[in-house]
Specification:
The complex is a heterotrimer. By secondary structure, chain B is mainly α. Helices cover about 70% and strands about 0% of the residues of chain B. The mean pLDDT of chain B is about 85. Chain C is an all-alpha fold. Chain C has 14 helices and no strands. The two termini of chain C are about 30 Å apart. Classes of the chains: A mainly alpha, B mainly alpha, C mainly alpha. Chains in contact: A-B, A-C, B-C.
């Protein structure tokens, strides 16, 4: 089959840019899904819990034989979920005011906006035009974030495989049957009309007609019409969906919406942090500079002051030295004078003798 | 069929991919502009 | 720790070597086991709990506790708080090793670790929050290696390379803050996609902000904790500047942590208000939520504040350790307690002994690598030939 195979990030953007001209049309951000996608309607009032769908699924997908055979209905006594070896399971529910047990088939609901695809960081999941959500093990890293993301607890992991573990889940038999124009294995195998396959619009109409024609028989809700933005597997039931362990509080927000808001804030970080940090850096640098200038100024002042003081001291010293010298000179002159005087006296005395 | 987004997922895959590339370019642009801005600052 | 002289060769065998040696040997066994037997026999992971202890602790806590790198470099190089310069290198080393170990731990957890570059090389799932986390963690690890390379270049006396790194330190720091903001918050945003599986008390549109703000607390606290430990066990490697600056760092970071924690607690209350989740506080989950918020975030905020006011570094150290525990509790609560709180069909999860074993091995590996680098390279002291680090 043909699959998007991008070359990293550039490829992803490039492949979409073909559609750039209509991105404007998508400005309203409302997406209807693939118009001609298929869907399956499960009617719990028709299901008899025979597990033929499980058997067919196992065969079509070449899964290992389970420990207990498919005609062993005691398996239904415990609540099960999908595993890496069972893409679909049927659970039995004893509902209080119902005489017979009610069965529910569990498999991938093939969301119109798949949470698993939105969560996968290698884009291993594809929402195909036919409605099936497929998985490409050739790029899967095995991070298991899809399992965290799935609101229906569907993807399973091959924990026992050492080197090549895969995510395992129902693909609506996309490759094996759907693209060949055949029915999904489980639908084909169902002996009752518990599973009906068709264009989603037609299947929805059928479900609505059933609810209208037999208002006493059905809960007036089509599970999957709006849940998580709508699914390509739809359910109608005669008992409240909660009693079949179906989460009725999911709301109609498609999964990608839960994270797209946070993801849209991310580019802002790239633009705004440099501005903010650049500003803070500039301010702190400026403060440093001013501090440095002030420091230098005070150093200069101090130096000038010391110089001035030194000059004064020098001057005083000079003056003092001058004075001292003068004194000394005076003294010397005086002394010389006295000596001269004395000499003269001596001379005079000597001449007297 | 090829020229429109049918799902929010496809739209986001495209818009986010371009956003990441733009982020890289913005980062390089801001760095260059900053260097241009402070080029003549005497330290 | 008197191997001051033998520190260079590390030849003397002490109890540290024996214990860590045994743990590393055990880790080697677990590594072989993981890559020959697979996750199935090794872990208690199941289809309801695809993420266990390794994601909770090794990834979520590991990344948060490695936030000291961007917090300290931002404080020093962008906010210009030069007195924290001595904390930069130990913090960058811890961060780099932290991120390295996160990546190493991931190679055990994911199914095909050799495909970890696929999101960038083969096919990019840009709608995924995990894509952003992976991209940022990868680039940030490279950024941290670049930041730390300055130390390694000094050690190897490669002056030209070193000065090249020094010139780009501002750019690296800003890049680090951008990337950290993005992936720290996105680790919380990972859980945004599954509102139906998360307990309302922990699920909030604010969860990316919670994760980011608490990562800042984790970063500040870890720098305090790790510097205190280094002072205790590697004191002989500390130069005088580190000795003198230590109190400044502890007091400054403690004060910052007190206020950021106060902001975090406020934010959490606002989160309760905008989602009107008050009624859940009266349930068992509410009690756990209150223990976490009041006991492990509000209380350390108060102790940090007392420590900062009265300049008691001892008190701040205890508060730092306590808030680190708080971050760990928060991450585990988000990823393992609040997640799948309504699970009716399917198995619950408690980590197996080999999961604990691998986590202990990873932490030990971090300790050994830190000690190796800190005893040989100029981390806790300046290189005598390169003293112009400012």
């Amino acid at each position: 089959m043909h699959r998007r195979k991008f070359l990293g990030l550039m490829g992803a953007a490039g492949a979409g840019s073909v559609a750039a001209s209509t991105a404007r049309a998508a400005g309203g951000k409302h997406f209807e899904g693939y118009p001609d996608s298929f869907a399956v309607l499960f009617d719990s009032t028709e299901c008899i819990g025979c597990r033929e769908c499980e058997r067919a699924c196992n065969e079509v997908n070449n899964l290992d034989q389970p420990e207990r055979p498919f005609d062993d209905l005691s398996v239904l006594e415990t609540k099960r979920r999908t595993t890496s070896n069972a893409y679909t399971v049927v659970n039995k529910y004893d509902v209080p005011d119902q005489s017979a047990p009610v069965y529910r088939k569990i498999q991938c609901n093939h969301c119109m906006e798949p949470a698993c695809a939105s969560a996968c960081f290698v884009g291993a999941f594809t929402k195909t035009e036919l409605g099936a959500v497929t998985y490409d093990p050739s790029v899967c890293v095995g991070c298991r974030y899809c399992m965290i993301a799935c609101p229906f607890h569907i993807p399973a992991y091959e924990y026992d495989k050492v080197l090549e573990p895969r995510i395992m889940k129902c693909t609506m038999c996309y490759e094996t049957r759907l693209i060949k124009g055949e029915l999904p294995g489980c639908v084909d195998a169902c002996p009752k009309e518990a599973l009906v396959f068709g264009k989603r619009e037609q299947v929805l109409q059928l479900a609505r007609r059933k609810l209208q024609t037999y208002p006493d028989r059905y809960e007036q809700h089509i599970y999957g019409e709006t849940e998580m933005g709508g699914t390509n597997w739809l359910y109608i039931s005669g008992t409240p969906f909660e009693s079949l362990d179906m989460n009725t509080e999911l709301g109609d927000t498609p999964a990608p919406k839960f994270t797209s808001g946070a993801l849209k804030l991310v580019p802002g970080v790239v633009a705004l942090w440099p501005l903010l940090l650049g500003g803070i850096y500039a301010v702190s640098r400026r403060k440093d500079k001013i501090a440095e200038q002030e420091r230098q100024q005070s150093v200069e002042d101090a130096v000038a002051e010391t110089k001035e003081q030194a000059r004064k001291e020098l001057e005083e010293f000079k003056e003092k030295a001058e004075r001292d010298r003068k004194k000394e000179v005076d003294k010397a002159v005086k002394k010389a004078k006295e000596e001269l005087e004395a000499e003269r006296k001596d001379e005079q005395g000597g001449s007297d003798e | 069929m090829q020229d429109s987004f049918h799902t929010l997922y496809d739209f986001l895959l495209h818009s986010e991919s371009t956003a990441y590339i733009t982020m890289g370019l913005v980062l390089i642009f801001l760095l260059c502009f900053w260097l241009f801005l402070i080029q003549r600052d005497e330290d | 720790m008197s191997d001051q002289e033998t520190g260079k060769s590390g030849s003397r065998i002490g109890p540290f070597h024996i214990i860590t040696g045994l743990i590393l040997l055990f880790g080697a066994f677990l590594t072989v086991y993981r890559f020959t037997q697979g996750l199935g026999p090794m872990t208690n992971l199941n289809n309801e709990y695809p993420w266990g202890l390794w994601i909770s602790f090794d990834l979520l806590c590991g990344v948060a506790l490695a936030a000291g790198g961007f917090v300290t470099t931002a404080a020093c190089y962008i906010f210009g708080l030069k007195k924290y310069h001595i904390a930069v290198r130990p913090a960058v080393l811890t961060a780099m090793l932290g991120y390295l170990l996160v990546v190493i731990a991931l190679t055990y957890d994911v199914g095909r670790p050799w495909r970890l570059p696929y999101p960038f090389l083969v096919q990019s799932g840009t709608t995924s929050v995990l894509f952003e986390v992976a991209l940022c963690v990868m680039i940030y690890l490279l950024t941290l290696i670049a930041e730390y390379s300055q130390v390694a270049f000094e050690w190897m006396r490669m002056s030209v390379a070193r000065s090249l790194v020094m010139k780009s330190i501002l750019f690296l720091t800003v890049l680090g803050v951008i990337l950290s903001t993005m992936h720290q918050s996105s680790l919380g945003a990972l859980y945004l996609i599954a509102p139906s599986k998360m307990h309302p008390l922990w699920y909030s549109a604010y969860i990316p902000v919670y994760f980011f703000v608490s990562a800042i607390v984790a970063g500040l606290s870890m720098v305090i904790v790790e510097m205190s430990l280094a002072r205790r066990f590697l004191r002989h490697k500390m130069d005088e500047a580190h000795e003198r600056g230590y109190d400044d760092v502890v007091l400054g970071f403690g004060k910052a942590a007190a206020f950021v924690l106060a902001g975090y607690v406020s934010l959490k209350l606002l989160g309760l208000a905008v989602d009107n989740d008050w009624s859940y506080l009266m349930t068992g989950f509410g009690a756990l939520f209150l223990v976490e918020l009041l006991g492990f975030f509000a209380l350390p905020a108060y102790i940090f504040a007392i420590g900062a006011r009265e300049r008691r570094t001892g008190l701040i150290k205890w508060a730092a350790g306590w808030s680190v525990l708080g971050i760990v509790l928060n991450r585990i609560n988000v990823s393992l307690v609040a997640y799948n709180w309504k699970l009716t069909v399917g198995e619950h999860y408690f980590p197996g002994w080999m999961e604990f074993g691998l986590t202990i091995f990873i932490v030990t590996l971090g300790l050994v690598l830190y000690r190796y680098c800190a005893t040989r390279m100029p981390v806790l002291h300046e290189h005598p030939e390169y003293t112009d680090t400012h």
